Amino acid sequence: MLKFSRIFFFTVSLISLGVAADVLKLRADAPDKYVVKKGDTLWDISALYLNSPWNWPKLWGNNLQIADPHWIFPGDVLSLVFDADGNPKLVVNEGKKQVKLSPSKRITPKDQNAIASISLDTIKPYLKNQRIVTETDFSQAPMVLGGDTNTKRKVAGDLIYSQGQLIKDNLYGIYRSTSNEKLADATDRQYVELELTGIARAVNQAGEVTRLTLESSLMEVQQGEKLFPLLDDQAMPTLFHLSMPEQAVNAEILASSSDLREFSKLEVVLINAGYQDSLRAGHVLGIFRQSPTVVLDNGQPVYFEDASKYARLFEQDTLDMPIEKVGDLVVFKVYENASYALVTESKKPLKVGDLVAQPE
């Protein structure tokens, strides 16, 4: 009942926050012109103009008649203009021609110098090296048995053996469990988080054992680690189309990449919501925190931990304080009941357990 009440209050609070969500408001210090710099992202640029950068498609134009998608590069000059109805728009100056940017078309980099939606360097290891699988798939996956020598830790160039019939010449990722208890508890132990330790190529069969050559190793490969095909889970998108989820999301941060007690912008986090909650890569979510509970102890307001034992025991005159927004994140890798996300904004130090929902 307590959990339901908190989620209900959280959802109602967010509805009240989103009353004016359709109104596009510029920052007071929004520049008239901006020169795109190396390292900029669409999020960074939108944040110069909007307090809600996830609304960038409204700012970057809505001209569906543009025949070809436009690319944004360092050195391009962006100008802030207003349409006939007074709505702000960003245009790209190309000599004497102005090109309005369309949210219906992805801004696709022509080469390595084009800017991305969010910091790809930060999330690249998690796109390529982390994955989440079901407990069943993990337990049934073939494991590393050993090698042609009795060294317990294998490195690139070593010959290794695994269980099962693997496909000759195919590449397989070798993974170990991260022992993420928060993910296990949040999903009733149905899912396991894995970390890539190496990549191996299947050579041939030797009875019930497969020979593999260890093509590369991020760390020493050990006996008992699991093998999974390197397929779509290794995809590295060029650009994320940023948008808000259409359905309500009620989740929380389960873990952070640094494992620190507090963290901030550009931290990769794991949340307990996925495509079962209609999430997809590029969805922008807000990070929220419940303000400390206040108790009226003999008529005097005090925080719950400072109240008398009697007041804490019976929870009389307990006041629920508001939920406040403390940051934003962008989802970049989605599984059934969990997702990886990048913190793109933090108003104060963030913590594991902070709530996650629509940004406004």
At a glance:
With 360 residues, this protein is an alpha+beta fold.
Parts with pLDDT < 50 across at least 5 consecutive residues: 1-21, 62-70, 95-112
Q: What's the rounded overall pLDDT mean?
A: 79
Please summarize the sheet with the most strands.
7 strands, antiparallel
Number of helices: 7
The number of distinct β-strands equals 22
The CATH top-level class label of the largest domain: Mainly Beta
Shape: flat
Classify the fold: give the CATH topology of the largest domain: Elongation Factor Tu (Ef-tu), domain 3
Q: Any descriptors?
A:
360 residues, alpha+beta, Elongation Factor Tu (Ef-tu), domain 3, Thrombin, subunit H, 3 domains, 7-stranded antiparallel β-sheet, 6-stranded antiparallel beta barrel, 7 helices, 22 strands, 34% strand
Give your account of this protein's structure.
This protein has 7 helices and 22 strands. The chain has helices at 2-17, 42-49, 56-59, 120-129, 135-140, 181-186, 309-314; strands spanning 33-35, 77-82, 88-94, 97-100, 130-134, 144-147, 153-154, 159-163, 171-177, 191-206, 209-217, 221-222, 226-229, 251-256, 268-271, 284-290, 294-297, 300-303, 318-319, 323-334, 339-346, 355-357. The chain has 3 domains: 31-117, no CATH class; 124-234, Beta Barrel (Elongation Factor Tu (Ef-tu), domain 3); 251-357, Thrombin, subunit H (Beta Barrel). Helix content is 16%, strand content 34%. With 360 residues, the chain is of the alpha+beta class.
